[in-house]
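Q: Could you predict the 3D structure of Pyruvate kinase?
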Amino acid sequence: MMVEEVLHRISEQAKRKRMSLPDHKTKIVCTIGPASRSREVLVRMIQAGMDVARLNLSHGSFDEHRETIRNIRAAADDAGLPVTILIDLPGPKIRIGDLAIEPLELHKGEVVTLTTAPAAGDPTRIPVEFEQFPQLVSEGSIIYLSDGFLQLRVNEVAGSDVRATVIVGGPLLSRKGMSIVGGGGVLAVSALTDRDRECIDFGLGEGLDTFSISFIERPEDILRAREHAARSGKTIKVISKIERQEALANIDGILRETDGVMIARGDLGVQIPIEEVPAVQKRIIQKANILGRPVITATQMLMSMTDNIRPTRAEVTDVANAILDGTDAVMLSEETSIGKYPVETVAMMAKIARSTEEKRSSIGPGCNLLGYFRQGKGREKITVNDVVSLNVIEALDALNIRFVLTPTRSGITPRNISRFKPEAWVLAFTRNPSTAKFLAFSYGVRPFLIRSEKEYWHGAILDAIRDWGLIEPGERVVLTEGVSPGREGTDSLIILTVD
Ligand SMILES: Nc1ncnc2c1ncn2[C@@H]1O[C@H](COP(=O)(O)OP(=O)(O)OP(=O)(O)O)[C@@H](O)[C@H]1O
Ligand SMILES: CC(=O)C(=O)O
Ligand SMILES: [K+]
Ligand SMILES: [Mg+2]
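A: Sure. Here are the predicted structure tokens for Pyruvate kinase:
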């Protein structure tokens, strides 16, 4: 009965369309906003390759996001493809409020007033949604707006008003972020704010369990989020957004505690010298790969496609380089939330990913992860699971195998294989919906939800993939399994020839 049940479930997933896998393995995360929240656009984005829909709770109301969540679920059903929803928490970011006229054009040399007093309707005053703001700046402070695209220099502080001269002008939109350099004020707010807790409750209420925490400082910030969810009896998956200096100083502890990590280059590029971003990106990707944590490279990847149908060469190269560095996922922000070409941008991402992945082996690995584990430091701390994943990679290469089948509870086994960025697909079979959802962030992993007991998995899984037409008769596949009694996790691999 168990076997029938699993077959029924898997074939249900496959029946909608004859099972096919994408032509690329890099996962694509898209920020959903006014340009993309309709069911119709979402279906096309999913078909173009969107794996994860990101809702940035810094923007929009709970009601709006609730409707967007409904649309995403309906669109995923329409497309017959899985989509994971990521809730991005606002964090302690100082933002400007809603502008009376949008965009507000700031001109070089002009003097503007930023104010924490109600400024509604007065187009000459820019509201700031942070009461202590005037205390954080003083004459000479530099204020960066909108990820540093706009710059102001403070002339004077008068009560709740701050007057500043525009050094670098341009269009300003509502609710853009602000970053202050110089001024003596210290921003002493925890990475997990009260608003973040409300947003976690909102997400849990919508049946979601994957959250990204903005401006994480240290591992304790992750624990606070986990504890908050635990009060409602829930377990959550946390993606730590690395976007400030303190997080870089604590990166090893953060990576150990977190489920996944995002290189949030928008804020990071203002919080640290911008020229250090490329090296930081490579270092975080390497560390995340070693620990088998999925890593997302985010912000400005195809920025010019917000307005144009074609990206720049530099942007295409940036996406390709992040993939060669070993990123699991790439993310789109403005491009899909407010851009003119959300669907085309996703399709472009997918095209760059396919082409880059095809050439990865001839270009050579960005970081030598295999070497790390086979000699040097990785050798000392090696686990049984590490050894199994290394043996899987060896078998895939030596025998030219196209599929690894991994029954999994926590997702560790497919993630540990995926971190080597193999050419084979990792098909992960799990009974845990949360595990299946979170594997959407891992390179080259396709999760399937099953209901059967472990003993019945092998036959059922093989039957199902044969039915899908993914595997040719006579083809070899790798299957991982846990056989040690009383020990959790994978400790064995089998090389099976499909009849
Ligand atoms: N739900 C939304 N409603 C309206 N506009 C949105 C929404 N989500 C995103 N946007 C727009 O897209 C822009 C880019 O999105 P993004 O998620 O990068 O935000 P951000 O303001 O840079 O903040 P963060 O640092 O948290 O990412 C936002 O600044 C905003 O203008
Ligand atoms: C994504 C994000 O928060 C950033 O790039 O700053
Ligand atoms: K955010
Ligand atoms: Mg940010």
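Q: Anything worth pointing out?
A: The radius of gyration is 24 Å.
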